[in-house]
Write a structure and sequence with these properties.
The chain is mainly α and about 110 residues long. The protein contains 5 helices and no strands.
Length: about 110
Amino acid sequence: MRAAAPEDQKNIQDDLSAFCFGDTYTRGRLDLQMRELLTFSMIASLGGCENQLKGHIQGNVSVGNDKKTLLSVVTQCLPYIGFPRTLNTLCCINEILPETENRQNL
């Protein structure tokens, strides 16, 4: 993201990288799967962050969390984040991880 940022915005990318990846992600208490799952749930609860949410859906898959796990998290969050944010999150999940034909026939 830094390479693609306009010159007058690179400082924001530097701050993001230093804070998120240089500080938060280097702490050792939570494994990467749990961190990514928590990040996904927090971004889903914020709403209006669909681009970041899609990135963290893919990030979750990259660290071994599957669609079923993401759907379970969204289900757990529903009473707290409401239907609009839940539905937006489901839309993002289904865009990044579309249903297979076999699964739709179950």
